[in-house]
Records
---
Amino acid sequence: MSLTTFEELPDDARLWLFHAERPLNDSEAAVLRSALEHFLEGWAAHRQDLTAAYDLRYNQFILLGIDESKLPPSGCSIDSMMHTLEQIGDTLAVDLVDAPDVPYRDGEAVVCVSRDAFAKLAASGTVNAATIVFDRMVTRVRDVRSGRWETPARSSWHARAFDLGESVSA
C-alpha cells in the first residue's frame, strides 16, 4: 500500500495542486476522497508502489504529494494521475484539471477566475496586494506548510503579473 497521510509526507515531497471552480458539496467531497484513496492505494511507477497522500482543502483544492525519496513517479504514473482526476471530475461534473487559473479569497469565499478576469479585478482595485491568493506554482509540501500556498498576493507571482505593487521578490 502506498497511501500515507499528508502530514506524514516529508517537507521536500513533490506537490501537485488541483482545484475545482467551485466548492464541492459534502457528498461530492466524499466521492472524491473515496476515488483518490482507491487510486493512491494502487499508484505505482514501474510496478513499484509510490508513497503518496492527498489533502482536500476547503472542499475545493486537492493537494497531492509524493515522497520522491522512496521512488519518484514515472511519466506513465503522472499520466494515470491526470487521467484519474479527469475521470473524477467527469463523475462530479466539475473540472479538476483545467479549472480557472486564479483562485483567491473574497472574504471567506474562494473564487476562481481566469487571468483576464483577475487582471480586471486588479485594475479596478477589487483585488490588491493584500488579497489572499492560492499560489498554484508551489511544488513542494513545505510550501504549503510554510504558508506560501495560501498567501497575500504581494508575496506571490500575482503581485508582479498583475501589477499589484508591494511585491516581495520570490
---
Amino acid sequence: MARKNLKLIDRRRVLGGLVALGTVLNLPFGAGVAMGAHKGTPRQSLGPFYPSSWSGDIDSDLVLVHGEAASALGTVLHLSGQLRNALGVPIAGAMIEIWQCDAKGVYRHPLDERGARQHDGGFQGRGRAFSDQSGQYQFRTIRPVAYPGRTPHIHFRITTTDRKTLITQMYIRGEKLNMRDGLLNSIRNPHQRESLIVGLAPVDRLEQGALSGRFDITIA
C-alpha cells in the first residue's frame, strides 16, 4: 500500500512539473503533457542547385521579377506555414529560403542553364522570408513541376536566430511520381514522410486560378 502511494506521489510530481513548465512557456496543459510529441521535420539534401547568388530580387514573391515585363509561367501558389520548435512553441525571426525549378523544369542556376535549358526570366527561382512573432511565413511562388528523376518539390533552408539550420523539401499530395522518388522514399517512417507532403487547394478568392498550400515546419 505504501509503495502504491509513493508511485501516485511520483506521478503527481511529474504531472505537476509538466504543468508548471507549460505555464512558463504559455502552453495549454495538454501541450505540456504532450511535450516531445513534436518530432522534427525530416532533413533532406541541399541538392546541386542551391542558389549561387542571393543578389538582386530575392523577396518572398517569386512570380514577379523586378525589371521583367512578364510574370512567371505556371500556376501561382500561395504557400504559407508556421515554424515551431520541438515543444510546439512558435519560432520568430527565422530566415526561410526556398528555391525550385521553373515551369519548364529548369533551375535558376549556372549548372542547369546550358544550351537550350534557359530558365524562365519571369520567375525569380529563389526567395527569402522571415517568420513573424507567431512563427508564420508566406511565399507567392508557382506550383512545382517534375523534371527527369524527381517528383515536384520545393527546397527549404531555415536558419533560426540562434543559428540552428534545417534543410528539407516539400512535396505535393497526389503526385504519382511521389511513389518513385528516391529522396522522398528514403524517409522510412511513413508519418515523417507524410509530414513533407502538402495538399493544394484553389484559392480564387485571393487570386484567380491560383492554389494555396500550408507547410508547417518543426525544428527539433
---
Amino acid sequence: MPKHGKSYIEAEKLVDKAKFYSPQEAMDLVIKTARAKFDETVEIHMRMGLDPRHADQQVRGLAMLPHGTGQQVRVLVFAQGEAATSAEEAGADHVGADDMIKKIEGGWLEFDTAIATSDMMSKIGKLGKILGRKGLMPNPKSGTVVQQDGLPQAIADSKKGKIDYRLDKTSVIHVPLGKASFESSQLVENLSSFVDSVVRAKPSGAKGEYVKKISLSATHGPGINMDVQAALALGSSD
C-alpha cells in the first residue's frame, strides 16, 4: 500500500467515503482537499457500464469547457503553404510539414494538441504509432483534421478549453475539469458541459447502466464520490 503524506491524510478526513455528494458539494470539497504547494488540477473519473472490447461500446468525443482547463495548451499544426501561414496567424505554437514529421520521428513531442489540414493526413499517417500512443494523432472525429478555412477556429477551440476524451481499457474516462484555484461555480459549469457531452456520445451498443460511478479528485487529493443522477441531471439541464 502506498504511504500518503500528512497533508493527504488531513484532507482525507474531510471526505465521507460512504457519501455521494451533490455536484456543488463535491466541487467545494475538492477545492478544500487541494493542499499542494502548486495549483492542483481538478480531475473527474467516470466509470462506465461499457465493455471497451466491443466496437459499438466505444466512447470518444469532444467537450468545450466554458472556463477552460487552466492549462496552457501548446498547439502543433501540420500544414503547408497558405494554410501554414493561416495557422501561424491564428496563434499555433508550432507549424510545419515534412520538417515537423521528421522532428517527431526523432523523438520531439513538445506539444499538447496536434491539428492537421486534410491534405496532410497522407503524409502524417506514418506517425500513427508515435502519436496514437500519446492520444495526439489528428482525427476528424475529434475536430483536429480540418480544411484550411477551419484552422483558426480549431486552434482557438484547442487553446480555449476543448478537451478530447475517450474510454480507456478499464472502462473509465479521465479528464481535467480545471484548476483548484477556479471558483467552484466555474468548475460546476465545466462539469455540466463535460457530462452533457458524454451523455450525447452514448454509443449504440450501450446496455443497462451507462454511467456507473463518478468521482472527483485534486492532483494529490483523495477521491470524492458524486451522486451520479444529480451529475447527469446537471448536464441535461443546459
---
Amino acid sequence: MFSNSNSQDLELFEKETFEFEKETLSYRILKPLNYNPNKQYPVHLFLHGAGERGNDNVSQLVHGGKLFLKKENREQYNSWVIFPQAQKNDWWGYKDPYKFDYNVKESKAMSLVVKLMDDFTQRKDVNPNKVFVSGLSMGGMGTFVILNLRPEMFAAATPICGDGDPSLVSNYSKKVPVWIFHGSDDSVVSPKKSLKMAKAIIENGGSPKITFYENVGHDSWNNAFAEKDFLKWIHSKSKKQ
C-alpha cells in the first residue's frame, strides 16, 4: 500500500484509540512540529472514504496523510492532525433519517468521532477557535454530518466529492466557511450533490466556495490537495464569535 519511505514518514502519525461506553475508535494523530505544551495549536480532523474503512488503523492515511507531513506544511500550518478510522461495517453517518447506501443499520463511528473531538478540543494545548474538518467521498459526506452535529466547533470545512442533507445546513451555513470540491466527471458521487449542498448553503445565508475540476472523476481529492491555497485557506479561518 505504501512504499517503505512513505510508511516510515506516516509513522509520525501516532496510533491511538478512544473508548466510550464500551465502543472503541481507532485513530492516528500527528503532533505539532516542535510541540510545546504551553502553546495552543489548531486541530485538523480528516475523515477518510469508504475504501479506507477497517481496523488496521493505517488505511485511513492513504489519501491525505502525506499532505500534512510535507515540511513546508508542517512549518506554515503547524497543528494537530487527527485521522479516525471507521469500521468496515460502518460509515460517517448518524442517527438521522438521511442515509446513504453503505448497508449500515446504525452508525457508531461518527458519534465516537464527535465524543473524541468534544474531549480533544478542551485541551489546554488546543486553539478552540481554529478547529477544522476535511473529508473525501464518504468523508465528504461525514464533513457535512459533523458540521450539523457540532456547528459551533469548526472554523472551516472542506468536503471533497461528498454529499449531504440540504435540509440541515441552516445549523452551520452562516457560521462555518465551506470550500467544496468535486470532479465534474465523477460517476461514483455525482457532482450535482455538491451543487445541491452549495445551493442550500447559499439559500440559508451562507457563502460557500466551490471548485469543480473538468475531466476529473471521483479522485478529485488529488486535485484538492494540490491546490496551493488548500491549507492556506483553511488556516486563514477562525471561528466566528
